[in-house]
Amino acid sequence: MSFSLVRGKYIICKAIGDAVEVVENGAIAQQDGRIIEIGNYAALADKYPTTQVIGSTDDVVLPGFVNGHHHTGLSSFQLGSADAPLELWLANRIAHRHVDPYLDTLYSAFQMVESGITTVQHIHRLTGRDRTVWLETANQILKAYQDVGMRVSYCFMVRDQNHLVYEADADFIQRLPPDIGLEVEVMLQTQTAPLNEYMEFFVQLWEGNQNQGDRVQIQLAPANLHWCSDTALLAQKEFADRYQVKLHMHLLETPYQKEYAERRFGTTAVEHLHHLGLLHSGLTLGHGTWMNETDIHLIANTGTMICHNASSNLRFQSGIAPLNRFLDAGIKVALALDEAGINDDQDMLQEMRLALNLHRIPGIDQRVPKAAQVFQMATAHGAETTGFADKIGSLEVGKAADLVLLDWQAIAYPYLDDNISIIDAVVHRGRTSSIKTVMVGGEIIFDSGTFTKVDKQAVLQELAASLQVPLTPEEQQRRQLSRRLFPYIKQFYRDWLKSHQFTPHYYQNSRY
Ligand SMILES: [Zn+2]
């Protein structure tokens, strides 16, 4: 039986509206990974005199953060794709080399834990079409999270159309010179599978992870509207209902995706999902950057969630999601790094600070995000989107002891006025360097700069060594194909946005 007291100058338990619940000079008693009591430290120390004490009056204790939308470890930038508008960046990704999934996942897991993330929504891009390889890869990714000690909600992106641009593969191939078209056809044959194989793989994964303890969930991920036929969307909804899992779907990340929905359906992407019956509290939409007012009402009325990926939207010139409107409408919004943090890493404290500041529009009466709301996005709402809401997202009796100890001295020394609230101080001044200890289920997984379950330096050395080999012929071929395809992909989107009159939800500047 494990038992410990986690002590802090401040314990930030959860967000309540625009504020947070804080216990000063508090402690959390955890037994076998569950919180059994929260209260005054002196009283709990009296009650449990022989127990191990973690933390001190120099610390602030808060729930572990949730990265609500994540893909890979090494960033696309590290893999050779400089930032570009999303549609072009997707084309560049074809050139990426193969990276060992176990080492790659650990690489980003290290960064996540170092910034206080204890749970992640991992949205995997399957490659090839061999289900044995899919399963091995998924298991390696899950093992990496288990080995480091994180909770993970795993899903893989289901795509059954429009793999290269926002039109049918056969139509786009017709636009290409025959030799490139042939290469693309061969690539698609080796990289895409029929819908039923994806659904069967989901069932296999779901069944295989029923006895993996309480740190693993499986979800379904319709990749995006343009990547899914209605048949694929409806099949995933049906399987989600049957297996009682959540859905996570990219949507309206760029204005091109907004335009795509209008061309395909004559409605917005959100209206189409509503028409198909997909909008509900079990669905999270990643991005939602280009939603109109009606979309936002539909999302709010159906209890659908949104995951805000601020850094990613900036890096891929996707725009700025109308977070202020989402929050006004009462939508539950999670927060994520989407493998593309503003510092090209997985720093949740940085992302919280970005989300806090990005939407501070001019005007003294404007409602802009409060630190407590951003904290709620990174904790309680992340817990909901990952399906762990009954276990994590707040520090409460009965919930898991998933928590972070931050060095309060690093935030408040040499001076911080009492006028500043604790949550404002944490969101404005918290740094990865001030994360002292990270605990998941009562187990310390990171302490004073060291991972307790995995040798970080050995993993990084192995990852580096694994990439010190020449590109394989297959990797070289993909790299060349990506380069040759690029101008045709760029050409495809050339006139897409010309007819649009953009009327922003809120203003940042003015021409007149
Ligand atoms: Zn994504």
Automatic annotation (TrEMBL):
SUPFAM superfamilies named among the record's database cross-references: Composite domain of metallo-dependent hydrolases, Metallo-dependent hydrolases
Superkingdom of the organism of origin: Bacteria
Residue span(s) of domain Amidohydrolase-related: 60-444
Record bears the keyword Manganese: no
Bilayer-crossing regions: none
Keywords tagged on the record: Hydrolase
Entry's Gene Ontology molecular function annotations: hydrolase activity, acting on carbon-nitrogen (but not peptide) bonds
Name listed for the protein in its UniProt record: Amidohydrolase family protein
